[in-house]
Design goal:
single chain, mainly alpha
């Protein structure tokens, strides 16, 4: 996107087709010969796509997925270990294959924005306001930490279960608001800013 081109979104069927190509390359394909046709691979491919995307948006490197295997070798059945190793290969190959096909995924877009966004990207917008979040992925936390230091960025939050912990992980300083008293505080008091 920084170079001026926004890559088209890979739909689930596009992702499964790319994952199927990776499946075909494997010496020991995931699920064995039963999953070597595209029709039989489709349901498995959708699950793999979901897992690969979740690991990517949490910024778990493929080697870390593979490294889990030796740590739990005794406790996990051989078939499960094989699936973890295969998953690490999908995690390693899929992003590059999608990029080679000029496709983006939800995870690749989040990670790219978190890594590359700059204050100038706000253009004529006077304020960047984040509201309505609770559970954040690693890429989202990285993005919020990056933009939160900008003077034109604000976080609007409402107290709730786990919110204080989420904000503390982000480094957001917020006022102590007594229960049931939110309406008595100004918008400025409710807006949290990340420190420089």
């Amino acid at each position: 996107a920084r170079a001026g081109a926004v890559l088209p979104k890979a739909e689930a069927i596009d992702a499964v087709a790319l994952l199927y190509d990776i499946q075909q390359e494997q010496d020991t394909p995931l699920g064995g010969p039963a999953f070597m046709t595209l029709d039989s691979f489709l349901p498995l491919g959708l699950k793999i796509h979901r897992d690969v995307e979740e690991l990517a948006i949490e910024r778990v490197p493929p080697r870390r997925v593979a490294e889990v295997q030796p740590l739990i070798e005794e406790e996990i059945p051989a078939r499960s270990r094989e699936r973890l190793l295969a998953l690490s290969r999908f995690c390693e190959r899929f992003p590059a294959l999608a990029a080679d096909c000029n496709l983006s995924t939800r995870a690749s877009r989040y990670v790219e924005v978190a890594d590359a966004v700059e204050p100038a990207d706000l253009g004529s917008f006077q304020l960047l306001l984040f509201a309505g979040f609770s559970t954040l992925t690693r890429a989202e936390r990285d993005l919020f930490s990056r933009v939160g230091a900008w003077p034109r960025c604000r976080f609007l939050f409402q107290e709730g279960p786990g919110m204080r912990e989420t904000l503390e992980r982000l480094g957001v300083k917020h006022p102590a608001v007594p229960e049931g008293r939110l309406e008595k505080y100004s918008q400025e008091q409710l807006a949290g800013r990340l420190p420089d």
